[in-house]
Amino acid sequence: MIKHPLLKIIKTLNNEEFKRLNKFLLSPYFNKRKKIFEYFKIILFFKPDFNSSLLTKEFIWQKANPQLAYNDDTLRSQLSKLNSLIRKFIIIEGLNSNGKGGDILEELSKRKINDLYEKSVNRITKEVETNPEIGAAFFYERYRIEINKFTHNYASQNLIKQKQVDRTAAELSDSSIFLFNFFITELLGMSLNLHFLSQNFKFDLQSNTLRKLIQSINLEEIMTSISEDNKYSYVINLYYMLHKLYNEPEKVEYYHQYKNTLSNFEKILSREELSFHYTQLRNYCLIQIQTNNNKEKFSRELFEVNSIFIHKEYYRNKETHYLSADMYRNILLRALDQKEFEWALDFIKEETLCLLPEQQENMEAFGYAHYYFAKEQYEMAIEYINKITTDQFIYRIDLKNINLKAYFILEDVEKGLQEIHSYQQYLRDSQMFSSDRKSRYMNFSKFLEKLFLIREKGKEDYGFIKKKILEAPDVAFKDWLLEQINYIEN
To answer: 354-396: per-residue pLDDT in tens?
Structure first.
């Protein structure tokens, strides 16, 4: 199968983008070589995955040039030109989607076409304001339009009338509001990223420039001073609430204020903003669960937020149309943890189709394995694990954990011990896990191995190993191990 950078790009295109790309490549203004379009049409036979074994350079050449002997240099040159054209196409697509007006206004102003400029600026402003998706991109676009209006009017008019002066001053003031909104949403978004980075990695946070910048700004005072003139102050308040929430995570009331405000303005926020803010709700719930603060309450809260997130498809945005495998896994496991079995079953049936096509088969089997294990149908769980078709499956450790637990509950000592030896070798060989995580999994497998051996020898005294598990600091699934001992003892 051919491996070429252009395939990475065209895999990301949707059907409407493919239609526009067709027109782009057929335009002699952009593409003066008809042969390049022929190569493109041949490659399109392999939509949407472009991973067929038939997709080779030889196949492409033979279809495009049936009468000619294969020439690798020529084909490589043609594919390189096709790649350049596709890259140019996505740049233009980006300008069309992000540059809603600023670019054309700058051109008209620069060329001093004043009458057309006035018509265009009114039309573009109306378009941007009609059913807007409020967010950082909207604020930046409005800033560009307003500052362009100020620059154009200031340069092209003699400000001899008070009305002209007032209008020009108002345009400058409006541009400052939109610039402030853009700046604050981006700054507080970056602050959040810095917070998460500091939770996972060690670095000098106190001397970090971004942190010093945020600490030096009295956000509340600035927001209050312009709130009457800023009709989008609710967006800034959302980010400010989020900022306070992560700076004082123990104040759960901030979470509810943030969530309620988000719900109140949900209908007018952009999909990107909704995706971002619902992700932050999910992250906060996870932090509360992991730190054992209101664990039961926030486990339920997380399920409720996940339900909204999936139902309204807030994982879809400009960056991706697909549900990520990580998100699929985490949401499914949280639902099963809450014993929402019917919801989880519907999730597997419906949301598997929202994953990347190449992930769907394995992730569906993965989902059913977890579902049947949670339903205590252990043979079915093992059956679905065996349907996973590749050793490179990213969640292989999850499946091994299910296998070990299922064999223990089924009292299959022989298969259980075999699986433990395979599990331990996998951990020793794997480069995927941190040393701490490896240690936790390895300790789990060693304790489970001792339980298997006690069961095999028919001994009844589990007290000693129970004491060891309780004392051990790093053991994955400690509660599950203790539950199994208590069940056997009782």
So the answer is: 999 989 999 999 999 999 999 999 999 999 999 987 665 678 8
182 within 8 A of 141, measured Cβ to Cβ: no
* Cα distance between residue 382 and residue 287, in whole Å: 32
Type of residue found at 457: K
Close Cβ partners of 408 (under 8 Å, ≥ 6 residues apart): 416, 448, 451, 452, 484
Residue type, 386: N
Average pLDDT over every residue of 408-437 = 89
Residue with tokens 């896994």: 329
- Residue 181 — φ and ψ, nearest 5°? -60, -45
- How far apart, in whole angstroms, are the C-alpha atoms of residue 79 and residue 150? 46
| Cα 134 from Cα 332, distance rounded (Å) | 31
Residue whose C-alpha is closest to residue 146's, from 125, 163, 131, 164:
125
What distance in Å separates the CA atoms of residue 103 and residue 109, rounded to the nearest whole number?
Answer: 10
Higher local confidence (pLDDT), 299 or 165: 299
Q: How far is CA 198 from CA 43, 123, 216, 281, in A?
A: 45, 46, 19, 19
- According to DSSP, the residues that pair with 134 across neighbouring strands are 269
Give the amino acid at 133.
Answer: E
Torsion (CA) 330, 332, 335, 341 in degrees, nearest 10? -170
Q: Exposed e or buried b for every residue in 351-379, given b needs 16+ CB within 10 A? A: bbebbbeebeebbbbbbbbbbbbbeeebe
